[in-house]
Amino acid sequence: MTLNEINIRDPFVLPYEGKYYMYGTRGATCWGECDGFDVYVSEDLTLWSDPIEAFHKPEGFWADRNYWAPEVHYYNGSFYAFVSFKSQDRCRGTQILKSDSPTGPFLLHSDGPVTPSDWECLDGTLYVDNDGQPYMVFCHEWVQVKDGEVCAILLSSDLKKAISEPILLFKASEPHWSRGVKNGPNYVTDGPFLYQPDNSYRNGPLNTTANKSKKDTFNKPLVMLWSSFSDDGYAQAIARSESGKITGPWTHDEQLLYSKDGGHGMLFHTFEGQLYLTLHTPNVTLKEHPIFIPVRDENHVLTVEYNQ
Predict the structure, then answer these.
(1) Burial 9-47 (b: 16+ CB within 10 A, else e)
(2) Which CB contacts under 8 angstroms, 24+ apart, belong to 157-163?
(3) How far apart are CA 126 and CA 237, in angstroms?
(4) In chain numbering, where does the site feature Important for catalytic activity, responsible for pKa modulation of the active site Glu and correct orientation of both the proton donor and substrate fall (predicted)?
């Protein structure tokens, strides 16, 4: 398959042992009932396998819809999927799954969502700080708070549960370009992803203790990709913590990374060292697909090599 033939939202690419594994939200069932998510495998980022089901809804599972934004991280020898789920009578939340293989099958790991049970949440992502402490960064949804929030929560070392209250990092309305949507002053936060310049993997996993060095990361900024809406529609934005700490304080880049009808992106390096942004575009049901855009990282300033 080619990227144009793959109808997914929220693409996430894991490079691992010479192959690229791409996960995402199934476009056809994004807004309704769902029973799993898939992985696509490639050796060259051009031709991809047919979808391989990496997770299938187990009998008695609490969620029956909106299996959103699966991210797979290699952590302490296993593969962990952070996935948002929803049912008619429970809040949306991010639950953690586990597998011994990047293609699955992924099995339930955390006991339900690790986000607060009475919060509408989505798009959890893993970040491991310089002391080896795992966090999950996630969105507290606009559908509940109107001004969407990006929050962080401490996880246990085995990624089975949250061990702190959520920490508010920033709100969607803060950057000057942010625009309210959905028939009112509602501001969206989507798809946080953490990137530490000069300290991401080239041929191995990102954000694991094996790739962290206090000496290498001291006083380096921590960059977060996230998405919301601007005057031109769905957009890919950058926030940064100049302290290099997840707690911030967080500021927002004036310039959007991708400004028109595309977002929920992440960054990855090829095995040859090229940095890429992947996101889905257009933001239209059944038409969305992943694209890959070369990115330059010059003194911690990210720019895309793409004519929008």
Answers:
(1) bbbbbbbbeeebbbbbbbbeebeeebbbbbbbbbeebee
(2) 159/75, 159/80, 159/96, 159/98, 159/109, 159/110, 159/126, 159/134, 160/96, 160/109, 160/110, 160/111, 161/110, 161/111, 161/114, 162/114, 162/115, 162/136
(3) 19
(4) 123
Q: Which of 136, 145, 101, 97 is nearest to 115 (CA)?
A: 136
At 97, the amino acid letter reads: L
Query: How many C-beta atoms lie closer than 10 Å to residue 255's C-beta?
Result: 11
Burial class (CB in 10 A: 0-12, 13-18, 19+), 110: buried
How many CA atoms lie within 13 Å of 202's alpha carbon, on the beta-carbon side? 4
CB under 8 Å to 154, separation ≥6 — which residues?
133, 134, 135, 162, 163, 164
**Where do the structural domains in the chain lie, given as residue ranges?**
3-304
Which residues are within 8 A (CB) of 90 and not within 5 positions of it... i.e. 6 or more apart? 62, 63, 117
Q: Which two tokens stand for residue 82?
A: 């952070």
Q: What's the pTM value of the predicted model, to 2 decimals?
A: 0.93
Which CATH entry fits the domain spanning 3-304: 3.30.70.100, 3.40.50.2300, 2.115.10.20, 3.30.1250.10?
Answer: 2.115.10.20
Q: DSSP letters along 81-94, please?
A: EEEEEEETTEEEEE
pLDDT in tens, 10-57: 999 999 999 999 999 999 999 999 999 999 999 999 999 999 999 999
